[in-house]
Hints:
This protein is α+β, with helices and mostly antiparallel strands. About 25% of the residues lie in helices and about 35% in strands. The chain is built from 2 helices and 10 strands; from the N terminus they run H-E-E-H-E-E-E-E-E-E-E-E. It has helices at about 5-25, 55-75, and strands at about 30-40, 45-50, 85-90, 95, 105, 115, 120-125, 130-135, 140-145, 150.
Amino acid sequence: MKINIKKTVYALLLTGGVLHGCFIWYSHRPVEIVAVHDRGSNYISVLVKNFPFTDKGKIHWWLKNKEMLMDKYNLPVSKKDESFNITFWLFGDGYKELSKYDRLSFEDMKTEVNCIEKDAVFSAQNSKNMGIMFKTYDGTYRLQNNGEIVEYHYR
């Protein structure tokens, strides 16, 4: 059996181009904030759709949108001495009832359907001692005073 190298190369290039195009489109969809739940003591849950894939993308999104989060949702994102912990959860299939599975429920909703699957994708935390820290699935990062973001390793 004879293989046509040109056709095989063209097919691979076309497939690679289509996959690359799909990735670019998927990664550039705007983040949708579905809801914000204040869980008390500066623990805030933000339910999102279309959150960036990469750690760099998540942190970049935060830096670009922190003022919008403060203005639109009154999230404490800018005061250096104010402690906060904001966790971004994928909204997935929406709210569900509490069941035998480990779900995160929101007490501020007065309905039986007030839980989501625990699928945290990003968190931003601030404390007096550590400053602003970002946690992702792959690592923890710290915002330095000079604006540089460095990977942080707990000791």
